[in-house]
Amino acid sequence: MTGKLFIQLLVNGISIGAVYALIAVGFALVFSVLKFSNFSFGGTISACAFIGFFFQKAFNQPPYWITVLVSSVAGVLIALTVDLLGFNRIRKKNSPKIYYFLSSVVFAIMIEQILTVFYGTQMYAFPSIFATTTLQIGGITFSKLDMTILAIAISLLVILIIIIDKTKLGLAIRAVAINSNTSRLMGINSSVIIVLTFAIAGFLGGITGVMLGQKYSVYASLGPSMMLKGFIASVIGGLGSLGGAIVAAILLGVVEIFATFVFGAEIVPIVLFGIMLIFLLVRPQGIAGRIAEEKA
Amino acid sequence: MNNYQIGLTILSCVSVITVTGVYALTGLCGMFSLGQAAFMCIGAYGTFMLTRYAGIPLIPAALLGVLAGVIVAWVVGRLTLKLRRDYFALMTVALGQAIPSLVVVFSEYTNGALGFTKIPKVNGLIWITLGITVLVVFCIRNLKYSRYGRMCLALKTDELAAKSFGINVYKLKVKIYILASAIACIAGILFALRNRYIDNTQFNWALSAEMQIFLFFGGSNSLTGAVVSAFVLKMLPNILRNVQLFGVSMQEYRIILYCILVLIILNFRPAGIMGEHELNFRWVSRLTAKIKNASGRNGGKA
Known about the structure:
heterodimer; A: mainly alpha; ABC transporter involved in vitamin B12 uptake, BtuC; two-stranded antiparallel ribbon; 11 helices; 2 strands; disordered C terminus; B: mainly alpha; two-stranded antiparallel sheet; globular
């Protein structure tokens, strides 16, 4: 493998890893607040990819940022609807965690099936947004799409970390993540924060939907298969930890691109599964080293 | 019964077997697995690769296929069941994706996405299937009322309390996971014998999720509910396949309909249709006792 090819693959891997990081963060946020794995996120990603695709088609190449904006708003709306129909009553009744699980799985399956029934299982290619698709830097060819995705994903991650770490909203989210009842006693409106967390996750889902749709073309099971990588990243990073999830996701993206290059795309799920097994064996607390406590 | 009806009955029985396994896992122990379809895949491919390439007769091959599933379950269970439950759920999702892609990686032998068709024909499959179904349901029913079943329920309700009563929670979880996976392997073998064709897309995570949906629809605490809903929900869409909605057959909609049903159940009756109730014949004896009592009293008066 030449040095140029290596750098090209590395950048490619980091770019796709950054998208996985967005998924992992969306997942980790909901996980840290409600302590359950939100599978419906995958459905949101698929649905937003389709919405972005049809928006792009219907308005004959609108500016890229408008497509991203529309689909992220759609992501927020879908996440809020899912919360309203699926989780609201369960939360009010204080039901066991397993019902959250089932509810989110049901939504993931339902969205995938609705898309399959109406649009089939075939892939829809996103229209290209750039006149020329590649970019030359120092004799190395980069895909413009990958660079755009990388830039958007990194800036979103930075904004998100600033929100979580520096603002009052972030403080409230962290407080609810530790204990929602105590936070309520401290004057934080826990239910609003929970809904807001869903909205942030939906927003991230919408953006990742469009970006993944452009990279891999749009199909009904896009979201669930990509969501899995976000999950694995957040497990390797340490469940519920944002920093760990981001690092793990970028590592995962790089490993995936190299594994695809060397062995072909079919081996990727097996490699990821193996990495996850080894991590759980050697370091179950994840990269961040902070194991999520079981809530009594 | 014609061939179609026989095929449908076998399919419903396979669904009952898998859901019974999931009942032991989720209903009794509270572990949420989304990878049971992967074990169906292991069972089916393991068995029929052995009959095809090693020339082993069907029954020993089936036993070896189940053994393969047991080994995988043991490895995965050992690694994840010591951690909190979410790790287990996520791990099973990853397993559910990894096993079908393993099939594609070894396309040379499995024929990959084109499907594997060299499956022997078995006469009287429906009787075998019905027999195995009854046996599995009977075993799990006995498990529920045994000491193990009570240990499982204790563990589901409160792990810490169960530990303090001297239950080895981790070992118990691994055992139940292995049991459920072995049952899924058996179901996978029957499924393959019925279709005489398997490919990797049949064992996707939608199938695993379908099992959970059936279980919670019937009631995750009731074996009767799980069995009945698995049978009926699998059967109904096939019977209604000629009904059209928006120009698409009901068959295509079935998973969406299941989803809507289970959402309604989750929101308004989280315990499922059957709740905690089980089908038993205690009411018969109660009824006869009542009749006896009534006639006895009448006799006294007269």
